[in-house]
């Protein structure tokens, strides 16, 4: 019942091999095939102010994924882009909630059209299905967005003290929720939110496009999410979350904090076969902020991210932190293409965070036109208040990078540990990155302990031990705490 994105594991490896085998011709083929596959399942591509729509004439029939199915129009919904449909969504969700677990729950079909709504809640054992050319539009009047208490692991709203705005589509304490479709769209219409944020006209933290809290068995698949007021999809303290075949879009500039997917104190998460181009991190794994996250004590763990094409001109393709005070562990990121971005993959933390980042595996990662490829930063000093514990020092260790390739990179590695927060047990193997900057210290390190296995390019910093391909020690580092960080390049 759900489509499979053509950017699969084997095709991705073939694309990367083609990318590496030629200077220009096969690189062009990479983009033709990779983005051609995106066009197949993404009916609308939003570029820099350009909108392209593909019409098929007839809409696909609605597949029935639950034994009971309803149409939004059955509850008074009007898809003209002007009529407010909040009550229709609420009546439909109420009808499904009355089914309970009986027969597997119910499905709400959103037909083609533009369905303006204020925020509404989901219920358990529910499928929200968006037809091709169906678009849910978030109302831009913030007075119609409810206020909610701050997240317990943050203490305050992320942007302002006090309450925060809720999300357009919200759920709490749910089980078995599916949001899917024939690549229908959920559009937060965030432009007015971004403008008011920049003008400092908002008194509360902006709300995500979708936020599901304290829930399990969540599937988001085969839809487009775009122009969120704030973070796009924020699963909070959830278990068993799958995001598959999803396009997430926002302007790459002037759309502040529009992260794509932010798993926060979540476990057993799979994010795969997605295209994400937004105004902040494409993905940011979090687990609470300073003393509030330490007290909440819910880690993010057992997370698999694979087969993605991502872009972030402001922040990074895949980030861990900086709010990671509950801990982050057992994360695998593989088969990833980061293009035209400021940073590719990043871990960020600071004194006062506490917690840990450990057992992180990066495998088969490709950079194209990225300013800084790999970043670990331990001085990301942004705090909810002044009451954080300066002795709460995070632990960062057991991180491996294997199969790191690409071109057009200014600084391939910048790992900035400190005397208080050293980076431990970092491994590099099979790395070859084409450079755009010819300066000596382009593989930058400070307070890092780890190893290089085999030959990598560019030459690693002196902080790392050298091993041959058979894993035999060749040269022991004598300067693990040496610093050659240069933020000017």
From TrEMBL:
Q: Which UniProt keywords apply?
A: Glycosidase, Hydrolase, Membrane, Transmembrane, Transmembrane helix
Q: Which InterPro entries match?
A: GH28_Enzymes, Glyco_hydro_28, PbH1, Pectin_lyas_fold, Pectin_lyase_fold/virulence
The record lists the membrane-crossing segments as 21-41
Asked if the Swiss-Prot or TrEMBL record annotates the protein with the keyword rRNA processing, the reply is: no
Gene Ontology molecular function terms on file: polygalacturonase activity
Query: What SUPFAM superfamilies does the annotation carry?
Result: Pectin lyase-like
The record's Gene Ontology biological-process terms are:
carbohydrate metabolic process
User: Carries keyword Transferase?
Assistant: no
Q: Record's PANTHER family? A: PECTIN LYASE-LIKE SUPERFAMILY PROTEIN, PECTIN LYASE-RELATED
Q: Which family does it belong to?
A: Belongs to the glycosyl hydrolase 28 family.
Q: What is this protein called?
A: Pectate lyase superfamily protein domain-containing protein
């Amino acid at each position: 019942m759900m489509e499979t994105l053509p950017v699969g594991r084997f095709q991705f490896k073939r694309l990367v091999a083609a990318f590496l085998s030629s200077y220009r011709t096969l690189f062009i083929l990479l983009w033709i095939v990779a983005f051609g596959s995106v066009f197949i399942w993404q009916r609308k591509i939003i570029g820099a102010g350009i909108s392209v729509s593909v019409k098929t004439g007839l809409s696909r029939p609605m597949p029935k994924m639950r034994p009971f199915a309803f149409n939004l129009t059955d509850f008074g919904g009007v898809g003209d882009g002007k009529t407010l449909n909040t009550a229709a969504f609420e009546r439909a969700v109420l009808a499904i909630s009355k089914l309970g677990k009986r027969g597997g729950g119910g499905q709400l079909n959103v037909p083609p059209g533009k369905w303006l709504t204020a925020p509404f809640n989901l219920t358990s054992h529910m499928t929200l299905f968006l037809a091709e050319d169906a678009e849910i539009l978030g109302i831009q009047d913030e007075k119609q967005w409810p206020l909610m208490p701050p997240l317990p692991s943050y203490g305050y709203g992320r942007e302002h003290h006090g309450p925060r705005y809720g999300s357009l589509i919200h759920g709490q304490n749910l089980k078995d929720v599916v949001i899917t479709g024939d690549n229908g769209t959920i559009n937060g219409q965030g432009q007015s939110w971004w403008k008011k944020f920049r003008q400092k006209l908002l008194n509360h933290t902006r709300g995500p496009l979708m936020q599901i809290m304290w829930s399990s068995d969540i599937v988001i698949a085969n839809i487009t999410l775009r122009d969120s007021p704030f973070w796009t999809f924020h699963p909070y303290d959830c278990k068993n979350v799958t995001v598959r075949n999803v396009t997430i879009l926002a302007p790459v500039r002037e759309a502040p904090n529009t992260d794509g997917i932010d798993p926060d104190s979540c476990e057993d998460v799979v994010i795969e076969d997605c295209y994400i181009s937004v105004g902040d991190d494409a993905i940011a794994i979090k687990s609470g902020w300073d003393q509030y996250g330490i007290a909440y004590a819910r880690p993010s763990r057992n997370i698999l991210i694979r087969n993605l094409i991502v872009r972030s001109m402001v922040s990074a393709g895949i980030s861990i932190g900086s709010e990671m005070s509950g801990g982050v562990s057992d994360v695998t990121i593989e088969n990833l293409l980061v293009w035209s971005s400021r940073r590719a993959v990043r871990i960020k933390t600071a004194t006062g965070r506490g917690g840990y980042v450990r057992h992180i595996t990066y495998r088969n990662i490709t950079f194209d036109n990225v300013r800084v490829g790999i970043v670990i930063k331990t001085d990301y000093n942004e705090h909810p208040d002044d009451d954080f514990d300066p002795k709460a020092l995070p632990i960062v260790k057991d991180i491996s990078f294997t199969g790191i390739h690409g071109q057009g990179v200014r600084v391939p590695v910048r790992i900035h540990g400190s005397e208080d927060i050293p980076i431990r047990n970092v491994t590099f193997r099979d790395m070859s990155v084409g450079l755009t900057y010819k300066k000596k210290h382009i593989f930058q390190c400070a307070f890092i302990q780890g190893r290089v296995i085999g030959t990598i390019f560019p030459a690693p910093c002196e902080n790392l031990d050298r091993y041959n391909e058979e894993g035999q020690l060749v040269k022991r580092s004598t300067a693990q705490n040496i610093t050659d960080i240069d933020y000017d390049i």
